TrEMBL record:
Pfam families tied to this protein: GSHPx
InterPro entries (alphabetical): Glutathione_peroxidase, GPX_AS, GPX_CS, Thioredoxin-like_sf
Annotated protein name in UniProt: Glutathione peroxidase
CDD domains found in the cross-reference section: GSH_Peroxidase
UniProt keyword annotations, A-Z: Oxidoreductase, Peroxidase
Family: Belongs to the glutathione peroxidase family.
GO MF terms, alphabetically ordered: peroxidase activity
Source organism per UniProt: Anaeromassilibacillus senegalensis
Length: 181
């Protein structure tokens, strides 16, 4: 099993077979419009523009599971991303990325690549750890997505090659992508 075995919902409600991206390097990210990490949309779009002609695709999955930071409809989310950050990469339907209703794609991804911690040098790491440990003192022990803008790099064979938490540097992510391209 790999990423190409999954189907997801597009913002218009239609199903998308991820096998259409077979042979590409993918960056799959859960997003939110009202989050401290929301400005990462700009960096994601830059990565997409820089490498799309080399077989690279970004797929954004809005999620409202982390302190309700993406409460709007799919249409409003798409409009926000286009208008504020010039997003042209595909944004899919709002998705659950953790808990009992987790989208099967994200269950697969988190089982393939578990949580390995936040960047200790990032200014938001301490706040994230405080929030998460107040909700679950053992949060770091399970593979679930911890916050918005968790990224999974998928190689050309559809395998989860890497997982990056929202505090990871875009330089590190770009380096991984370049290596796979």
């Amino acid at each position: 099993m790999n990423v190409y075995d999954f189907h997801v919902r597009q913002m218009n409600g239609k199903e998308l077979d991820l096998s259409v991206y077979r042979g590409n390097v993918l960056l799959i990210v859960n997003t939110a419009s009202k989050c401290g990490f929301t400005p990462q949309f700009e960096d994601l779009e830059k990565l997409f523009q820089k490498y799309r002609d080399h077989g690279f695709m970004v797929l954004g999955f809005p999620c409202n599971q982390f302190h309700e930071q993406d409460p709007e409809s799919n249409d409003k989310i798409a409009e926000f991303c286009r208008y504020n950050y010039g997003v042209t990469f595909p944004m899919l339907a709002k998705t659950n990325v953790k808990g009992p209703q987790t989208e099967p794609l994200f269950r697969y991804l988190t089982n393939a690549r578990g949580f390995s911690g936040f960047d200790p040098d990032h200014p938001l790491t301490e706040k994230l750890q405080e929030i998460l440990s107040s909700e679950d003192p053992h949060y770091a022990e399970n593979p679930e997505i911890k916050w918005n803008f968790t990224k999974f790099v998928i190689d050309r064979e559809g395998e989860a090659a890497a997982r990056y938490e929202p505090t990871a540097s875009m330089r590190e992510i770009e380096s991984c992508i370049k290596e796979l391209l």
